[in-house]
């Protein structure tokens, strides 16, 4: 492994662990735990690559132990809150903020135990909202997840129901080809937005999946990469329950 490669891994580890500490201090413990785990692994890889420098290895061992101790404390704390049914975390997205793509927001709560997802959002109707839901579904199709069923409860677009029906039917067919069943239901009375994972996590977003702003143009930064897309102001409440129920 080249020196440049090792230096690059070390820079990545520092960046991820700095983010872990920031999230930890702001009370976003589940997200911080994921970053601690990722950063620790990167540091361990760096330590293994610096075999000949014992002083550096000792420095990395000390840093790794500190981060591992903190990650273990968080894990115990989170597990206790989950056991007591008291877990609640709130994320506030400021107006025009960036860095809140679906993977950033949802992946800390996804795991190999996740097999079924319920989405309640009255506004999966217009073209950009349908694309948002598609993007959300694509995020669930990762090797680390075993999602087999996605439930969508939304309202019908009375102005253009054919476009909505056609788009969701196409998505259903596409997901079926990936081994995932999409269950569609409509309601004219729903208002709340909620996403439930069958591993116990519940995510309530004030604006549902539709919290991204329209890009300034088709060739503007943020049009493709949603981590760079500006957001509307909204709040996200995250809970955990041992008893997952359908919407």
Notes on the protein architecture:
- The protein has 247 residues and is of the alpha/beta class.
- The chain has helices spanning 3-25, 29-49, 54-84, 102-106, 127-140, 161-177; strands at 88-93, 116-120, 149-154, 181-186, 194-197, 201-205, 234-240.
- It has a 7-stranded mixed β-sheet, with helices on one face.
- A hairpin with a 3-residue loop joins strand 5 (194-197) and strand 6.
- The N and C termini lie far apart (51 Å).
Question: How would you state the average pLDDT, rounded?
Answer: 90
Q: Percent of residues in helical segments?
A: 40-55%
Q: Let me know the largest β-sheet.
A: 7 strands, mixed
Beta-strand percentage? 15-25%
Structural class: alpha/beta
H and E string: HHHEHEHEHEEEE
Gross morphology is globular
**Major sheet: arrangement of strands:** 1-7-6-5-2-3-4
Q: For the CA atoms, what is the radius of gyration? A: 21 Å
Distance between the termini: 51 Å
Count of distinct strands: 7
| SS summary, helix count | 6
Q: pLDDT under 50 segments (min length 5)?
A: none
